[in-house]
Write a structure and sequence with these properties.
The chain has 123 residues and is mainly α. The radius of gyration is 23 Å and the shape is elongated.
């Protein structure tokens, strides 16, 4: 009986500890930054991106920056209009030539915006 109580107490302690850790921990958050989108666009234009990588970044909404969200939506629209995901498996490009041109314009626009100096806030 003593062995049973010992095993029960150890299992109960582990279970309560696990539940407590899960209750106190926060849900992990992923925050898409402009550099992530630039890297994805560069890899897409160089024919080095997978379909899964594209959808992981472009299909995830960006709530912390309205400008980045608009860039993400434009990229999503380019994929809908010019996407060729079946050609990636054969070594082809994810987008048609027109899609690559549009994506290059989006990338250049984002890169130019990042190069602008940030306005200083007055104290």
């Amino acid at each position: 009986m003593l062995l049973f109580l010992l095993v029960f107490a150890v299992c109960l302690t582990i279970l309560v500890g696990t539940v407590a850790m899960l209750m106190l921990s926060r849900t992990p958050r992923y925050r898409t930054e402009p550099e992530h989108l630039l890297t994805l666009f560069d890899k897409t234009l160089d024919k080095r991106v997978s379909v899964a990588e594209w959808h992981t970044l472009v299909d995830y909404p960006i709530r912390h920056d309205a400008y980045l969200e608009s860039i993400r939506r434009r990229a999503q629209h380019v994929m809908e209009e010019h996407g060729r995901p079946w050609q990636v498996a054969q070594g082809g490009c994810l987008l048609s030539r027109a899609g690559r041109d549009e994506l290059e314009a989006i990338r250049d626009h984002l890169r130019a915006r990042l190069a602008l100096p940030k306005p200083e806030l007055e104290a």
